[in-house]
Amino acid sequence: MTESLEIDRQAIREAASRMVVLSEDFDAALRGLTEIGAIRDDGLLSGFLSVLAECLTEASEMRAALSHVMAATGGGLGFVASSTEVADVASGEYLEPRGESWA
Q1: Taking phi first (over 0 means left), then psi (-120 to 50 degrees means alpha), and beta for anything else, what does residue 37 get?
Q2: Contact assessment for residue 95 and residue 102, using Cβ atoms and an 8 Å cutoff
Q3: How far apart are CA 88 and CA 97, in angstroms?
Q4: 96 vs 103: CA distance, rounded Å
Q5: What is the C-alpha to C-alpha distance for residues 97 and 10, in angstroms, rounded to an integer?
Q6: Domain map of the chain by residue range?
Q7: pTM of the predicted model as reported, rounded to 2 decimal places
Q8: Are 92 and 102 in contact (CB under 8 A)?
Q9: What's the pLDDT tens digit per position in 78-101?
């Protein structure tokens, strides 16, 4: 059984011709809409860009705040470690050791 792959050149030429006509029609429609003012920046794009800029600013501020929270958390954890060590030493004077741990 022999299979072949053939290209219908005439069908391709017809499709190419239709695409050219469609592109010309599309271009003419766009020109017409532009001429009557139907296609222009009606402010939606500028509003979007304004909101985008605000989001980027908020994200930057959030990252800075997160950095401060992380630093404060680290400082707090350090304080907890120090204060529990001081508490252990202070309470050790009044508690009797029971094996490896305090009870």
Answers
A1: left
A2: yes
A3: 12
A4: 8
A5: 99
A6: 7-40, 43-103
A7: 0.40
A8: yes
A9: 888 888 888 878 877 666 665 555
